[in-house]
Amino acid sequence: MLSEAKRYDVKGKKEIGALRKYYFCDTGLRNARLNFAFPDEGQMMENIVYNELCYNGYSVNVGTLDSIEKNKDGRSVRKTNKIDFYAVKGIKQYYIQVTADMSDAATKKREIRPFFMVKDQIRKIIVLNKPVKESLDENEFIVIGFADFLLRFIK
User: Is domain 2-153 given the CATH code 3.40.1350 in the classification?
Assistant: First the structure.
């Protein structure tokens, strides 16, 4: 019923044994278990992308990377940044962020921020719940619509 995604330290290039994330193999069972009370579009999209990546033979982890930043008081604090997925299939490697919408500036900043912190050549993909054709944004990130990603890109 559930599938386990291990955390992957993007900077250290290794799986982290603790802090796993779980996805429902069947999102209908998730909805039934929650009595259809929490219709979170972004979470459902993330679950579907995870399932489809696995079905298409990708090894899928949840990416994390820590940073040290100053808080509003000027103190250094450790912050954990999340990349929805680090997917690998043969020589294909992708960092993937899944979001329902990025028209809000704060949402866009939150979604792409981890990509700027990664200093490697792995392709970075933003999956939107909009009918957009695959394109490169101003940062060289692939932006693609949800349906196009599932039906064509990951095959």
Answer: yes
